[in-house]
């Protein structure tokens, strides 16, 4: 009897010890798994409903894309501009290796083009980022960030800034893989080689890498009204110093070009501006301050655009949308519209028509047409 009791007692002890050992092993595995998840979330914060980064999106372009985003990861940050792997989506063949024009950015940067597609801030839908064909069809919402602007289509990504939430983002052409590059407010974003130049909330010139790193102050100039960068030259107009200045990016040599402060474009070594000393008429001057020329005796409205050897503009007082050669010759009337927020996108123009409403903040008056004035269409 006693032997049987002793035998049962030993069996109970063996089972108990074995169970403790198994529990300890499971706890160790759970701890390791927890540490692995924590480590991953610290390097790449993933919000709810975010797709696994290793999975390819199966989302159709006509569906509304996911709105959550991830912060820029170390893997993306170490890639050189122009060296990123192409995304496997139906738009991956779209050519997109040049930044938006300086005139488009000075008009708000509400649109950019890549071959047969236009990426734009849809003013009829809170300024959300959209994509559409050149004929205005096949509109697709890419994000729900309010008042997207400073749009650049670069290397299979759409870069843009948003007001709500504040920040610089990038997103794929099909609306997937949205990344927050840097939070905050930025203005007049200009891509130049490996850098993004911009004005911050202090209205000073800063630059950062494409991934948002290595932020630097470029100039001590303050109270700047606008910023343009092209071919190694930076141009800004200053309210404090009253004038327009050019800065070489290699040596940071600053030169005052003119006493005027209404720049609307930088193109091929010329600065285009409205001359306040001559009723705001359109002028151009070399970036070294020489050869100041009047383009036209017309008095334009606030926002003009220079592109492809032409200056596009509306009149301040009367209806009428015109273009004139940059040397002042060959003036052409395009329509009876009163254009605002002019964006020239290759052979297409996207703008607001103030004839439809006197309210410049009205949302439903976007017009798309060709640069010769044909094919005018209101974007619904």
SSE topology:
Elements: H1 2-43, E1 70-71, H2 74-77, H3 102-106, E2 111-114, E3 117-122, E4 128-133, E5 140-141, E6 149-154, E7 157-162, E8 167-172, E9 179-183, E10 187-192, E11 195-199, E12 205-209, E13 216-217, E14 224-230, E15 233-238, E16 243-248, E17 254-258, E18 263-267, E19 270-275, E20 281-286, E21 293-294, E22 305-307, E23 310-314, E24 321-325, E25 332-335, E26 339-345, E27 348-353, E28 366-370, E29 377-378
Structure, briefly:
The chain is mainly beta and about 375 residues long. The chain contains 3 helices and 29 strands. The longest helix is centred in the N-terminal third of the chain and has 42 residues.
Low-confidence stretches: 1-96
What strand line-up does the widest sheet have? 1-9-8-7-6
Class of secondary structure makeup: mainly beta
- Amount of helix: 10-25%
Total of helices: 3
Question: N-to-C terminal Cα separation, in Å?
Answer: 94 Å
| Average residue pLDDT | 79
Largest sheet: 5 strands, mixed
Radius of gyration: 28 Å
* Number of strand segments: 29
Query: What percentage of amino acids are in beta strands?
Result: 35-45%
Shape: globular
């Amino acid at each position: 009897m006693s032997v049987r009791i002793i035998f049962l007692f030993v069996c109970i002890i063996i089972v108990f010890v074995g169970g403790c050992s198994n529990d300890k092993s499971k706890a160790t595995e759970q701890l390791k798994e927890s540490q692995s998840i924590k480590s991953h979330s610290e390097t790449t914060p993933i919000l709810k409903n975010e797709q696994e980064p290793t999975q390819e999106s199966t989302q159709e372009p006509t569906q509304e894309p996911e709105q959550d985003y991830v912060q820029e990861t170390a893997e993306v940050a170490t890639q050189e501009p122009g060296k990123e792997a192409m995304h496997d989506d139906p738009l991956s063949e779209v050519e997109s290796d040049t930044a938006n024009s300086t005139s488009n950015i000075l008009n708000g940067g509400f649109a950019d083009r890549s071959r047969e597609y236009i990426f734009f801030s849809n003013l009829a839908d809170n300024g959300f980022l959209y994509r559409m064909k050149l004929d205005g069809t096949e509109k697709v919402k890419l994000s729900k960030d309010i008042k997207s602007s400073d749009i650049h289509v670069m290397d299979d990504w759409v870069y843009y800034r948003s007001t709500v939430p504040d920040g610089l983002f990038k997103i794929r052409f099909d609306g997937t893989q949205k990344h927050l590059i840097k939070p905050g407010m930025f203005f007049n974003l200009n891509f130049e080689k490996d850098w993004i130049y911009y004005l911050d909330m202090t209205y000073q010139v800063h630059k950062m890498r494409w991934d948002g790193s290595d932020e630097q102050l470029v100039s001590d100039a303050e109270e700047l009204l606008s910023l343009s960068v092209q071919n190694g030259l930076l141009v800004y107009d200053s309210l404090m110093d009253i004038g327009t200045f050019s800065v070489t990016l290699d040596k940071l040599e600053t030169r005052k070009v003119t006493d005027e402060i209404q720049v609307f474009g930088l193109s091929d070594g010329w600065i285009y501006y409205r001359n306040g000393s001559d009723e705001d008429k359109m002028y151009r001057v070399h970036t070294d301050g020489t050869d100041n020329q009047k383009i036209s005796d017309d008095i334009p409205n606030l926002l003009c655009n220079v592109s492809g050897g032409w200056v596009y503009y509306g009149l301040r007082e009367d209806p009428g949308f015109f273009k004139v050669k940059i040397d002042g010759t060959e003036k052409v009337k395009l329509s009876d519209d009163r254009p605002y927020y002019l964006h020239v996108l290759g052979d297409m123009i996207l703008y607001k028509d103030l004839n439809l409403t006197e309210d410049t903040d009205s949302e439903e008056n976007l017009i798309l047409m060709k640069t010769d004035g044909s094919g005018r269409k209101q974007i619904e």
